[in-house]
Design a protein that fits this description.
The structure is a single chain. By secondary structure, the chain is mainly beta. It has a single domain, classed as Beta Barrel (Porin), CATH 2.40.160. Helices cover about 5% and strands about 55% of the residues. It is globular. The N terminus is likely disordered.
Length: about 325
């Protein structure tokens, strides 16, 4: 029989970071851990469903390289977390995703006109269309489809190493499994492994989280080949290179309106796993999110969040909405 754990879960769930991640399709090929807390309860099961809806539009118009990302993306991340001891637990995240034509482009265009924001490359394509492909000098690429896809599964480990009165530090580790399609551009075809740490503080009304990761992608560089832009033009040696390591850092600030409701602001930054001439792959991603979290008296909680890229980022979704359901119980 299961018994509810409201007292332990209520304080931990509403003070957790927002379950937001980068939904820019080329970045989803690699490990991108969802921010965690060092103060969550280690004595029960957690089941969580994070649902995201993102709008994405990026085009690289290079004469040799060409990248097109124009879609809306629905992602459902199903996560199960189980304690292994009183200070360590393991979680498994399995995502499914549905890229599609979308329905928000007219709203975005009207919003840009209202604020006098340039439409940029959005004006070059009809509203609510789908495209996801890469051409890189004829040497490497992918071609996405408008269909349901399995994302990259992730196995994560969290171990609390220091704890005090309202604060704690936990070590983190994660492995991304290459379960997504490499051919259609949703996975790299290789695993990624990361090590990180999170420091958390929780007072009567405020809570803070600071987290950092160092991640190693096991994908190898693609050897370069010679490409002639024209008969008389220069020859280019084109490859497909990746960084040996990339980083992810997040900072979360929250305020508890009550014992069952909190308001949260969160920033996530990092470096790119790519090493290419494309700004739409090499730029440092940054996500800015705002949300609320609440929990009822039967251990059922929910999150509602909005994420914006600051209008200047080239390696994140333009914006996204997140709705998460969380359930906690003892066995």
């Amino acid at each position: 029989m299961f018994s509810h754990s409201f007292i332990s879960a209520a304080g931990s769930f509403i003070t957790a970071p927002l379950p937001v991640r980068n939904l820019y399709a080329p970045m989803m090929r690699f490990l991108d851990p969802v921010p965690d807390s060092a103060l969550r309860d280690y004595s029960n099961w957690d089941i969580k469903l994070d649902q995201h809806l993102a709008n994405i539009h990026q085009i690289n118009h290079g004469s040799i390289d060409f990248l097109m990302v124009d879609m809306e993306m629905y992602v459902a991340d199903f996560t199960v977390r189980k304690s292994l001891s009183n200070n360590m637990d393991v979680s498994i995240q399995l995502p499914v995703q549905r890229p599609f034509n979308g329905l928000l482009d007219p709203f975005i265009n009207d919003f840009h006109k209202l604020l006098n924001i340039p439409a940029a490359s959005r004006s070059t394509r009809p509203n609510n269309t789908f495209a996801y492909h890469l051409r890189q000098g004829g040497n490497a690429g992918w071609q996405g489809k408008n269909r349901w896809e399995l994302g990259n599964a992730t196995i994560s480990l969290r171990k609390q190493i220091i704890d005090g009165d309202g604060w704690a530090i936990a070590a983190l580790a994660a492995i991304k499994l290459p379960t997504a399609s490499k051919q259609r551009g949703w996975g790299s075809g290789k695993p990624d492994a990361g090590l990180g740490a999170v420091a958390s503080f929780n007072s009567e009304h405020w809570f803070i989280h600071a987290e950092g990761w160092l991640i190693h992608p096991f994908i190898k560089d693609v050897p370069g080949t010679q490409f002639n832009a024209s008969i008389t033009g220069p020859a280019y040696i084109l490859g497909w290179d990746y960084q040996p390591y990339y980083t992810r850092v997040s900072s979360t600030l929250g305020w508890k309106y009550s014992q069952q409701l909190s308001v949260i602001a969160q920033v996530q930054v990092g470096t790119s796993p790519y090493s290419t001439p494309m700004q739409q792959l090499d730029s440092k991603p940054m996500l800015i999110s705002f949300g609320i979290q609440a929990e009822t008296d039967d251990s059922l909680g929910w999150t509602l969040a909005f994420t914006e890229n600051g209008l200047t980022q080239l390696t994140t979704q333009d914006f996204s909405f997140t709705f998460s359901l969380h359930y906690s119980f003892f066995d």
